[in-house]
Amino acid sequence: MIKIFEPVELGSLKLSNRVFMAPMTRSRADNSNAVVTERHAKYYSQRASAGLIISEGTSVSKRSVGYVNVPGIYSENQTEAWKQVTRAVHDKGGHIFVQFWHVGRISHPDLLNGKLPLAPSAINPNKNVRTYNGRLKSVTPKEITVDEIKQTVNEFKQAALNAIEAGFDGVEIHASNGYLFHQFFNNVSNKRTDEYGGSNENKSRFLFEVIDALKDIIPENKIGIRLNPMMHGASGIWVDEQTADTFDYIVNKLNDYDTAYLHLTRPAKIIDEPYFIKDVISHYRNIYKGILVANGNYDLESAEKEIASQHADAVAFGVPFIANPDLVNRFRNGYPLAEADKNTFYTSGDKGYIDYPNFEDQ
User: Fold this and answer.
1) pTM over 0.85
2) β-bridge mates for residue 154, sequence order
3) Domain residue limits at 227
4) Does any domain span residue 203?
5) CATH code where residue 277 lies
6) Helix axes 205-214, 146-166, angle to 10 degrees
7) List 179, 261, 353, 356, catalytic entry
8) In angstroms, rounded to a whole number, what is the distance separating the alpha carbons of residues 187 and 278?
9) What is d(CA 315, CA 348) in angstroms, rounded to the nearest whole number?
10) 116 assigned to some structural domain
11) Is 179 considered catalytic here?
């Protein structure tokens, strides 16, 4: 047995292996209420052999939506519908966290009943947004007020209550990839001069207010955090001389909490600057004392190396899980991997979603 197949404890959970399923938007909640369906239950249960499933990004409020046909967890109907997903995963012996998502300025009034997206500062990310009227250019967002920040914290808190009701094993806060929390962290998107801008403490205040609110509802060891510290040149996010220091502060402060894990994404683009952290995983392994989950274009060999070197405790795989619902078994037995059809990543229906066979069923 190699390291990636060894069990790992995540708070009170005992996971069977260290092959995690990364959160992936699949746009299958194609209904007016943004609820998951039996199709979602089948999709996730097919992949229940993962040590942990982290669900697709799930909207915590109507104002948090940034993509078409993504599910929510802010209404009673949505909460009730998620029960069939968690039940199906648990029936297969799996574990599943729900990823809480607020996209901030990466949205469009077409998705928000005509309202402007919320953001730390009124700065357009200049990004194409997938709306019900096709791809549209992003707009200049509304600078979120302190009262609206407090309201948003309460929306995350309600989502945590709903997640418990729906039967999830835990939650992951999506503080990554250029979305709302990340917009607060970054100097290019956050020009505030109040208590939510300027210093590292201020730029991360919103995140820790949400964590503090959630731990009143759900044990800290059932809360995961996802970060992408060195994301550069996407969604209006740019690494500068202060970026590493900001994330060092955030990760250091996370050590004061008994969270389930820190989920880190390796940079897709490396820049040759002295302030740019090229090996994000090993850098933050030296800072973070808890369970560290690595993500970012790993294969079995590189994932095993990351875990064997103790840089990470688990590795989250995204696209490989789309076409290989039995990814753990394929890894374990050396079976070849099927290739995912990119044309069906964000479409409706069964094709490219629940019709990929297990290797042994082909």
Assistant:
1) yes
2) none
3) 3-318
4) yes
5) 3.20.20.70
6) 40
7) 179
8) 20
9) 28
10) yes
11) yes
Residue 24 lies in a domain: yes
**Domain contains 334:** no
What is the residue-level pLDDT of the chain in tens, covering all 362 positions? 599 999 999 999 999 999 999 999 999 999 999 999 999 999 999 999 999 999 999 999 999 999 999 999 999 999 999 999 999 999 999 999 999 999 999 999 999 999 999 999 999 999 999 998 999 999 999 999 999 999 999 999 999 999 999 999 999 999 999 999 999 999 999 999 999 999 999 999 999 999 999 999 999 999 999 999 999 999 999 999 999 999 999 999 999 999 999 999 999 999 999 999 999 999 999 999 999 999 999 999 999 999 999 999 999 999 999 999 999 999 999 999 999 999 999 999 999 999 999 999 88
Task: Please give the structure tokens belonging to residue 243.
Answer: 């970026």
Q: Which two tokens stand for residue 18?
A: 């260290």
Spatial separation of the C-alpha atoms in residues 223 and 205, rounded to whole Å: 17
CA distance 53 to 49: 9
Quote the number of domains for the chain.
1
